Inverse folding.
């Protein structure tokens, strides 16, 4: 008498909660997701190919556009890779300022994630609170390098300039305020019954699956795997800082949320340590005017807010790379999405997408 | 029937209907402004400020925009049903207002006696429950006729949700009907006056069941699944624009006002002032004498606060000073203000104050809560609210029997 059918539905590429131009082909059985296929490539700009026709300093602005929510982490990773290739030693003051910038960027990126994640789940107010604090960080970046989104803030061998006068004081002010502000978000969400209901047990990623898929960052640590590039392969003098790497237990959306909230606190601690021990001196190593690295190849990873951000450069001759390859954490983490969403409801999908925190510029490159 | 009787029985209700139909959209437009302002305050931002002083003309601008906007109808939609749906939604919502009493005492206007409500029927409560469930048809029709998958999913969610929450909503008000023995709105409030207590105290469980179900029934946060913008774009009204969209909007806000009014009447004594039988508080009969200065003082303080850029100290100070002034005026009867007595005005004042409180709760929820998931919403309705509301009915029955 009755005939039931599965319904195909296209979520995206223009949809309010796919965080950019991700497209999901969903097969729905009622409200339940029977099958999901992510379709990517809507934001492909060919950054890797473009890099082959640019000199090394000209590539850095391109890296800003990869993960545009955390451009400083990309700058840091790219400059680190070229420095590794050339065997440059960055002055300690520049390394410390890079750490301060990268950790502030991590907080700013996590704030954007928290705001949009909560907005996806219907909690509107958190979004405005997090943007209030993100704005403070962006002001700091603007004071440092004049830009608010695509910073192009570093140079191969260090920084373009030292920080402006009074800047460290402003950073310290922000670090002092921030923990109380973070408590405001937690008051609204962490023990909220509806929030718990929407995130606990939703989108579980088992540790073995996470490792097998190559997930990294909070997506991996939420599943309980204790791996952080900053500690496993320290760069930019991260080995001199004390910080904890928070891990989750169940690998669900709630654990990834808790991990990121704790990471913001740890980032505050790292920035405070860096400010306390900030060395004096130069901010840029002696770098030749034309950057011509020796022939060879290099792979350098940094812990971006989204996970393991890798840069692979093959250099043959001249001023341009022969081959450039980015390992983007968003792209790899996105592969876990169909696994996590199997059998969930359509409302859970937005929760899970939010919890792996993808940036489409980073996925499509 | 003589001429006066004709006017009394036909023309006056018609005029009342006209007044409600004219005032209500304006009221809702400004309710929307209040919502945006309150949300703005909660969300550390300014809310509309451009059109008029502090955005006071924004609702007019919005209404004009909706009126002159292109009214698109999707090519593959069912044109007839697509047009019918907003009408089917808005008519029951407006009809419900016919039996809501804003005050009890009639007043004289141009020599005719006018009651402050359109009609008082003895099955008003049942009428309200049945008429409000008709609104679902419009939503289902709209979602289906749009011929869009998102709209369809939104409509399905909406209908399932509204049907589930009708049940606890109905059971929750049964307790009040048992206490009063009447379903007439006026009768229920008068019974509260005789009992000397608002029914929210004996019926606290019923009130909570009612209010949660009412929020769900009106599809508002945290139960706004049918129009969950993060999942279903805009739910059942994804494809609607212009005046048709405005009608859905009007219906949603009218429903909010109606369920808030019912909550006020059933559980919070309708137009009665607090402690209706305590003669020591008679000065509250002219409640606006106290609350007017309170609000004015608080508002002035807030304005100065805004200029100074500091916290809200002056707002509280202004409120307290205003209250003191108001109590002083009311007690010492300055200029005979307190003895000027008009029950209908006083009743409407208290009634709208209580309704405003519930509307504020709606906005507060919207600023605070995330959204429920579909299955969690159903679980809450069927596993918690329905058993609790039935328990409330049984408990009330037992109490009545024991008390004799």
């Amino acid at each position: 008498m009755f005939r039931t059918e599965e319904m195909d539905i296209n979520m995206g590429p223009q949809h309010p909660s796919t965080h950019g131009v991700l497209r999901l082909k969903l097969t729905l059985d009622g409200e339940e997701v029977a099958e999901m296929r992510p379709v990517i490539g809507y934001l492909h700009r060919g950054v890797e190919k473009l890099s082959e026709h640019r000199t090394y300093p000209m590539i850095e602005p391109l890296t800003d556009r990869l993960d545009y929510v955390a451009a400083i982490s990309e700058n840091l990773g790219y400059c680190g890779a070229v420095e590794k290739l050339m065997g440059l030693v960055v002055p300690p003051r520049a390394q410390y300022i890079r750490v301060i910038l990268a950790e502030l960027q991590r907080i700013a990126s996590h704030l954007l994630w928290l705001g949009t994640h909560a907005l996806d789940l219907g909690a509107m107010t958190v979004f405005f609170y997090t943007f209030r604090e993100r704005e403070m960080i962006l002001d700091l970046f603007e004071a440092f390098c004049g830009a608010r989104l695509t910073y192009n803030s570093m140079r191969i061998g260090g920084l373009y300039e030292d920080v402006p006068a009074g800047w460290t004081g402003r950073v310290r002010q922000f670090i002092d305020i921030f923990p109380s502000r973070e408590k405001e978000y937690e008051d609204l969400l962490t023990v909220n019954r509806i929030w718990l209901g929407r995130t606990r047990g939703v989108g579980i990623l088992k540790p073995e699956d996470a490792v097998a898929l190559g997930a990294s960052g909070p997506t991996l640590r939420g599943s309980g795997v204790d791996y952080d590039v900053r500690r496993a392969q320290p760069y930019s003098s991260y080995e001199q800082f004390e910080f904890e790497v928070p891990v989750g237990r169940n690998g669900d959306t709630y654990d990834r949320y808790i991990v990121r909230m704790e990471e913001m606190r740890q980032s505050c601690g790292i920035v405070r340590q860096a400010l306390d021990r900030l060395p004096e001196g130069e901010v840029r190593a002696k770098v030749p005017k034309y950057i011509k690295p020796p022939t060879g190849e290099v792979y350098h990873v940094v812990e971006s807010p989204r996970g393991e951000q890798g840069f692979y450069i093959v250099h043959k001759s001249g001023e341009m790379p022969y081959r450039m390859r980015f390992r983007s954490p968003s792209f790899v983490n996105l592969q876990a999405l169909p696994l996590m969403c199997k059998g969930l409801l359509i409302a859970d999908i937005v929760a899970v997408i939010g919890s792996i925190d993808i940036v489409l510029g980073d996925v499509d490159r | 029937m003589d001429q006066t009787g004709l006017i009394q029985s036909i023309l006056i209700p018609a005029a009342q209907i006209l007044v409600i139909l004219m005032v209500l959209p304006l009221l809702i437009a400004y309710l929307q402004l209040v919502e945006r302002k309150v949300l703005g305050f909660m969300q550390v931002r300014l809310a509309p400020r451009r059109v008029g002083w502090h955005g006071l003309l924004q609702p007019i601008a919005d209404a004009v925009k909706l009126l002159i906007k292109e009214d698109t109808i999707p090519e593959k939609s069912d044109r007839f049903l697509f047009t019918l749906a907003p009408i089917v939604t808005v008519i029951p919502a407006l009809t419900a207002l016919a039996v809501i009493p804003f005050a009890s005492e009639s007043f004289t206007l141009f020599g005719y006696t006018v009651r402050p409500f359109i009609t008082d029927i003895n099955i008003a409560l049942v009428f309200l429950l049945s008429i409000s469930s008709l609104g679902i048809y419009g939503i289902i029709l709209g979602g289906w006729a749009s011929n869009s998958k998102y709209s369809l999913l939104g409509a399905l969610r909406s209908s399932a949700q509204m049907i589930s929450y009708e049940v606890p909503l109905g059971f929750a008000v049964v307790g009040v009907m048992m206490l009063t023995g009447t379903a007439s709105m006026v009768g229920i409030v008068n019974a509260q006056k005789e009992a000397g207590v608002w029914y929210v105290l004996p019926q606290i469980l019923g009130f909570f069941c009612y209010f949660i179900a009412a929020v769900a029934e009106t599809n508002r946060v945290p139960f706004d699944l049918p129009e969950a913008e993060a999942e279903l774009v805009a739910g059942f009204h994804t494809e609607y624009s212009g005046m048709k969209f405005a009608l859905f909007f009007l219906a949603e806000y009218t429903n909010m006002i109606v369920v808030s009014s019912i909550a006020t009447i059933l559980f919070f004594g309708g137009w009665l002032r607090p402690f209706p039988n305590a003669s020591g508080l008679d000065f509250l009969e002219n409640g606006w004498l106290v609350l007017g200065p309170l609000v004015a003082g608080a508002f002035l303080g807030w304005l100065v606060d805004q200029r100074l850029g500091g916290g809200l100290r002056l707002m509280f100070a202004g409120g307290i000073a205003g209250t003191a002034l108001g109590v002083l005026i009311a007690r010492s009867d300055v200029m005979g203000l307190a003895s000027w007595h008009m029950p209908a005005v006083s009743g409407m004042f208290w009634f709208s104050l209580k309704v405003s409180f519930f509307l504020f709760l709606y906005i507060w929820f919207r600023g605070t809560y995330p959204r429920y998931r579909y299955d969690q919403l159903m679980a809450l309705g069927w596993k918690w609210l329905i058993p609790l509301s039935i328990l409330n009915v049984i408990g009330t029955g037992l109490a009545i029997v024991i008390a004799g």
User: Anything to note?
Assistant: The longest strand of chain B covers residues 107-109. Chain B has a mean pLDDT of 81. DSSP finds 13 helices and two strands in chain B. Chain B touches chain A at residues 39, 42-45, 149-150, 153, 157, 221-222, 224-225, 228-233, 366-376 (CB under 8 Å).
